[in-house]
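User: Some background: our group keeps a shared notebook of sequences we're curious about, and every so often someone picks one and asks for a predicted structure to add to the entry. Today it's my turn. The entry only has the sequence so far, pasted here. Could you supply the structure so I can complete it?
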Amino acid sequence: MQKGNIGVTTENIFPVIKKFLYSDHEIFLREMVSNAVDATQKIKTLAEKGDFKGELGDLAVHITLDEAAKTITISDNGIGMTEEEIDKYINQIAFSGVTDFLDKYKDNANAIIGHFGLGFYSSFMVSDRVDIITRSYKDASKGIKWSCDGTPSFEIEGVEKDGRGSDIVLHVSDDCKEFLQKSKIEELLNKYCKFMPVPLVFGKKTEWKDGKQVDTADDNVINSIEPLWTKSPS
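Assistant: Of course. Here's the predicted structure to add to the notebook entry:
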């Protein structure tokens, strides 16, 4: 296992993120799902260009809630990441004058997220720890697990992972328990992710049986990937 520090120019950026983005902290799910969708779109593009010869398989993004474990997991079968890519895109955040900037834009979370490319780090607004379990689409790639508890230090190690793609596991903090409610996650997915271009699966469809809601065998697909202009007006 390797340990290291995330490349930030402030001693600890995460309390700053939580402090200034708190009023809009529900956007974390949009950011996590958007990243998974981007990774999925990239593998499709590589396949279309002939740069990826393997089976594409299931290209849906799966969002899984485990109330007992207090986790939200966003899973994709996209391009995945190598250890070098994790170091480049996750560990190296180069902030300059970040506190001044955050203070200036503290009422506009989207400006902060967009300016710094902070999408992934919005996960720490609701999490005590975040794990990335990933494997690149590239030949001979192996599974990698990256973990961070909201301080600038991280751990990275090799793990078994079948197939390409990434699982982002958010260990939800006690002060954000509302995000462990199925109804809350479904609400946010419908609010922010309804028109994303790949299927988003959140659990199974339910039906009434013997006076209660039970899961069926069918995936609960949140979004419609059919363009609006192809639908007949109702």
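Suggested note for the entry: Strands lie at 2-5, 61-66, 71-76, 127-135, 143-148, 153-159, 165-172, 200-209, 212-221. The chain has a mean pLDDT of 83.
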